[in-house]
Amino acid sequence: MILWLKAFHLISMVAWFAGLFYMFRLFVNRVENRNDPAVSDVLQGMATRLYRFIATPAMVATLGVGLAMLIAQPVYLTWGWVQLKLGLVAILVGYHLYVGRVLRRFATGDLYLTSRQCRIRNEIPTPLLILIVLLAVLRPGS
Ligand code: HEM
Asked: What pTM did the predictor assign?
């Protein structure tokens, strides 16, 4: 049972990151094409659908299945690497919610970030992914 949960945990995690990695890439193009309403509309629509129909449901699934594993085997919570991982996951959820705020503001036409600022923000999920996967696979200290 736990192996099934783990498999779906990983599948939904990949889908979540596919969304997170692409959102600010779309915002970069949105900002750089601000004077072309047709392109802007397409990019805003793509970003809205990616966030609403892929990234957010995949996040809910990753967290839900992760919590199901904790409920199935509560001993996980006593391990330091799990506690650290959950802290990093909380930061990742904060990033996801921040992306949603930027999306809503861009939808009103308020492109308040430069394309360089969008590129920099796009790098944030990468170190979190590396750290979380290393913790989950190497399980330091256990
Ligand atoms: C509320 C959020 C989360 C909870 C409660 C959670 C919990 C868990 C648990 C209990 C396991 C099984 C550990 C094991 O038996 O090895 C696991 C595995 C794993 N988790 Fe998470 N997780 C969460 C979010 C994430 C996220 C966001 C990622 C990726 C960025 C992630 C990546 C992994 C990986 C790669 C494994 C497989 C480790 C292995 O089998 O070697 N988890 N998770």
From this structure: 0.94
